Amino acid sequence: MAVISELQSDEENPNPKPNTKEAEASSSSASPGPSDEDLSRIQGSLSSIDFLDRVIDFLRRKRDLFKDEDAERKIRGIVSAAKENDAKVRKKKAEEERKAADAERRQKAAEAQAEKKPENGQAESDQGKETSGKPNSGNGMDLENYSWTQTLSELTVNIPVPRGTKSRFVVCEIKRSHLKVGLKGQPPIIDGELYMPVKVDDCFWSIEDEKFISILLTKHNGMEWWKSLTKGGPEIDTQKVEPENSKLSDLDSETRQTVEKMMFDQRQKSMGLPTSDEMNKQEILKKFMAEHPEMDFSRAKLS
Fold it and tell me: By CB neighbour count within 10 A (0-12 exposed, 13-18 middle, 19+ buried), where does 190 fall?
């Protein structure tokens, strides 16, 4: 009988070489059970098949295993169930490994994205500085293809062109809310909706020294600073506008007072302080409180 011959062989060689692949498969796919420690000690260095062969031989000799006519069918059922369970364990392990790999990939992608964010954030910051910065010396902005300056009532645009350019080569269309200017046969240098309306009849353009186009735009509202030449274009911080004091003397008294008030309010806002209107309201409320000491002003707010 094969079992007996195997048993005799094992007795002659008490330390047979284990089947490494079978041992690894068994240990990796099985979940710990209550008898694992005892069975492992009994199995020793035997391979899985040799150990099973000895167990069956033991049951044949010492128990009534084969007296049951359905023993073979039941054993096959046990083996089939164990095989199915092993397949589930392997599948679960593979799924866990796949999820772990996916999680690792997502983590690496997130780390890579996090490293790029400071660069993007710096780019956005730089863009913000470009589109809302300190005005040039003329309270406007210097751009790549043109520059513009302004006073409260007027705005001047200067566009460099090739030396020797004549007025007949220029295309300039000034409308109430739109400006288009460039050279014939070429894409427009400026083509957009103006930041605020202008008085078309009081606007004009000319060629200066045959090397740049100068455009004078008269603002429709002569009491407001423009943030940009065209809507959607780069903007300046109007709170940093610095009008020339020498030109204030050219204004009539009422206009001059209005301009000075605007300049004062801009400085106050830039420092987080109340404007002239807010200060006036505070003085009125303080005076009213002094005239009516019998009233409770504990909940009154000075804003």
Answer: buried
